[in-house]
Design goal:
This protein is 30% helix and 27% strand. With 281 residues, the chain is α+β, with helices and mostly antiparallel strands. The strands form two sheets. Strands 5, 6, 7, 8, 9, 10, 11, 12 and 13 form a nine-stranded mixed sheet that branches. The protein has a five-stranded antiparallel sheet with strand order 4-3-1-2-14. The longest helix has 16 residues, at 253-268. The model has no long low-confidence stretch (mean pLDDT 96).
Length: 281
Amino acid sequence: ISVFDHGLLYGDGVFEGIRCYGGKIFKLREHTIRLYNSAKAVYINVPYAQNELERFLLESIRINNIKDGYIRLVVTRGYGDLGLDPRKCPKATVIIIADQIALFPEEVYDKGIRLITSSLRRTPHDTLSPSIKSLNYLNNILARAESIRADAQEAILLNHQGYVTECSGDNIFCIKAGVVMTPPIHAGILPGITRATVIELLRTKMKTTVSETMLTLTDLYSSEEVFLTGTGAEIIGVVEIDRQRIGDGKPGRLTRQIEDAYNQLTQISGANAYDKNPCVA
């Protein structure tokens, strides 16, 4: 990888984090669609067709002999010069990393996670759309650094109107009177694939009402349950926000049910990397 790659020099690129369970890549097609959408939004031409790139991802699991793991797919603007002109980068760079990931210790999943509200604001749509999963994660990293200094595991980012968007690396949900609520895409969030999967599970399998609505910190503080979703984090219950206890201070009953339903789904679906002709869709 060249030191003149604009992914390194300017954070000029996009990426996806993808999970593999039992040798099957979970939501492979959804992740590659989002990658191509992000690339198109920043005028990067991915140098492979989508089906070809998906075959590379499946091959990365086989080559590394991974059954339960994580894939990081990165597409940068490519090799260029020390200027900003994207025309100086003739071809995008594609990087596929197959490895393991553990965002939080196991005890956090058992006991729940503590959050703070970051003093930073989520990057607004008119600056850089949060729907683009770009390599420029400084906004998220600074928020996470703030949570570390406050002895918490994650940070909530508000938008410029003061509404809840998401955490530094996860989407957020809350539960009140049996209704599950989460910020809508237009609040300024990444359209999470785990988020969409959980919403579908809640509506179809668990017959639970889900409302995508603008939320305030007061809504979160007064919720019966709060939980986070993300490809890396999966499902994790929240027990404290800004030193205020959520519910009874333990991951809630519905959160645990969602976690179980999600874990069951990951074991029975996905593109099998060890099949000669895997079904991707």
